[in-house]
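Chain entry —
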Amino acid sequence: MKVFMLGWEFPPFISGGLGTACYGLTKALNQLNIKVTFVLPKKVNTRYATHVNLLTPGSLDHVASFSCEELKNVKFLTISSSLKPYSRPGVSQTRIEETLKEKMTKNGFDLTEQSGGGVDYCGDMYTEVHRYAAIAATLAENEQFDVIHAHDWMTYPAGMAVAKMSGKPLIIHVHSTEFDRSGPNVNQMIYDIERAGMHTADKIIAVSYFTRSIIISRYGISGDKVEVVHNGVERNGNANHNLTSSVIERDEKIVLFLGRITMQKGPEYFLQAAKMVLDVMENVKFVMAGSGDMMHRAIELAAELGIGNKVLFTGFLRGEDVNKIYKMADLFVMPSVSEPFGLVPLEALDNDVPVIISKQSGVSEVLTHALKVDFWDVDEMANKIIAVLKYPPLGLTLRNYGNFEVRKLRWKDSAEKCARIYEESMVAV
């Protein structure tokens, strides 16, 4: 089976969980001997692409080739394009990064080749999305494939264009909707693209039942068209790191927030709960790892709450720096307002960090050994943070059972479900 896959993120160019998900899924599909051609709007640095057969066209008539073994069934076609999926008009991500650069360096984080904050994806989104679609359709004319798999709204026009050109079935994979990102005040252009893609698709893959319900109720899609495929997680080997920090004392507990600092992720609820915890516990530091359009507001709120000296903003992290921050953490909290899935709690548990997660998340469907709380209930969130930090047996139970539980969530299972959906859609066309 051959799949023509469309996505706008792949390591090292990531601004959210989509890049991680695309890597995990393509790796698992490769192990099932499914051949994937992946169209990406960014040239992948060969330092991160030593495991793939990489085609990097600067233009359609010039292609450089790199090959290797780990993903021998995956081929990459990269379009010279600039996309910035999570940004809103008027937000200067460069200013945010410059503000945090000195602080990150001071705390021992490697700033070389950091991306995901807006340097790699920029420009007029609408124009770029449709230019990507036109070039992807041209590239598809020279490829052989059985099914089209498009990840999230920025690739839906490309998926529709390739499906129209080829007559092959279109599968769209919904990792997030505009209602998750913006709440009720949706960007109409993005909503219209999402709705068109969903109605055109032969099948829709949702990352959770939480997301499936939004697709059905908000976009008018029949339930029999939408399949749920939960994400998996890569085992990281639990490597040890030598940790030093000039701003974290050895006897301090570390509570971690890791993700985009945007409305969707609920950073203000995290800080409000932090204030309540610090009212009764002094030896706690709250670390916010990530960047986003609410960064400055979060810094201001921490100051307004009088906890600025107890909250550390690291900026956007990747690779070993992410592993490092996990190893420092005593607890991970995900207070998302609307989270289609949420890979980070799985990564935290895989690193032996107990987790508290929002009930408004897809990952709550697959985790039993995690404390769950409504995102808006900061009193309960604070109570549960205090309970984990004050009572080691509770943290140990959550850590041990959660780590065992997350081992069962593998990308191989996700890939097998996707393969079944591919086969069903091919028969139906």
The CA atoms of residues 359 and 374 lie 5 Å apart. The chain has a mean pLDDT of 84. Residues 253-406 form a domain with the Rossmann fold fold (CATH 3.40.50.2000).
